[in-house]
Design a protein that fits this description.
Elements (H helix, E strand, L loop, with lengths): L23 H5 L10 H4 L32 E9 L10 E5 L25 E5 L5 E7 L4 E2 L7 E2 L2 E6 L8 E6 L10 H4 L3 H4 L5 E2 L10 E4 L2 E2 L10
Parallel strand pairs: 1-10, 1-11
Antiparallel strand pairs: 1-4, 2-3, 2-7, 5-6, 7-8, 9-10
The structure holds fe (ii) ion.
Fe (ii) ion (FE2) binds next to strand 7.
């Protein structure tokens, strides 16, 4: 038997599968006991992407879908490091993001929110981490949107993140939030995360990351395992 590479997840830092306040979790959560991933699958390395597989604008959401101008809204830079359970950088790993536009609307047929689409904004991007595990996106601050979970329900501003890390067993899908958002206190998805771990999903405003006369900066580190692991959404 090979020795485990990944330590077990700290499930006390993640939201329960069934969180009735988050209505969709009632139908999405498993009703039968889980089948643990076989160790040889969990610890299998994910495919490695090369820089050649990505387009030069893939991490610039303000330009990667522009048709006839710039997207509307507040330009922001979102950056941070991807770290493993020992705090070591996870290098050359794919980070994917998707988000609503500044008006709170996704480019998706299921999104019929009465807010305008932006012809110059798709809301999807990806990049590889560098040697320090750092990723960086230029984007537009996403708007809040209504989601029908309960009367007058609005999602806080957020950006969806997907990561694999180095192994299938370190896959993480989560959401990044913004500091000081009053909707966080009312959001069943955010509130479904154990209280001690919630702050790990809130980005930090950074004047050092902020680009003068151009874009505000936010820092958001992602830890794939260990005592400081980033919760799933
Ligand atoms: Fe969303």
């Amino acid at each position: 038997m090979t020795s485990p590479i990944l330590t077990p997840r700290d499930w006390a830092s993640h939201p329960p599968y069934l969180s009735p306040g988050y209505r969709s979790s009632i139908s999405r959560s498993p009703s039968l006991p889980l089948i643990p991933l076989k160790e040889n699958l969990r610890n299998r390395r994910v495919p490695v992407y090369g820089a050649d597989d990505l387009g030069t604008l893939d991490n610039d959401l303000t330009r990667n879908a522009a048709k006839n101008g710039e997207p509307l809204g507040e330009r922001i830079i979102v950056t941070g490091r991807v770290l493993d359970e020992g705090g070591r950088p996870v290098r050359n790993t794919l980070v994917e993001v998707w988000q609503a536009n500044a008006a709170g609307r996704y480019v998706h047929k299921a999104d019929q929110h009465d807010a305008p689409l932006d012809p110059n904004f798709l809301g999807a991007g990806r990049c590889l981490t560098d040697n320090e595990g750092r990723y960086r996106f230029m984007t537009i601050k996403p708007g809040a949107y209504p989601w029908g979970n309960h009367p007058n329900a609005w999602r806080p501003n957020h950006i969806h993140f997907s990561l694999f890390g180095e192994y299938f067993g370190s896959r993480l899908v989560t959401q990044m939030y913004f500091p000081g958002d009053p909707l966080l206190d009312l959001d069943p998805i955010y509130q479904g995360i154990p209280e001690h771990a919630r702050h790990r999903l809130v980005s930090r405003f950074s004047i050092d990351t902020t680009q003068e006369n151009y874009a505000l900066g936010y820092e958001f580190d992602i830890v794939l395992r260990g005592p400081d692991q980033t919760p799933t959404e």
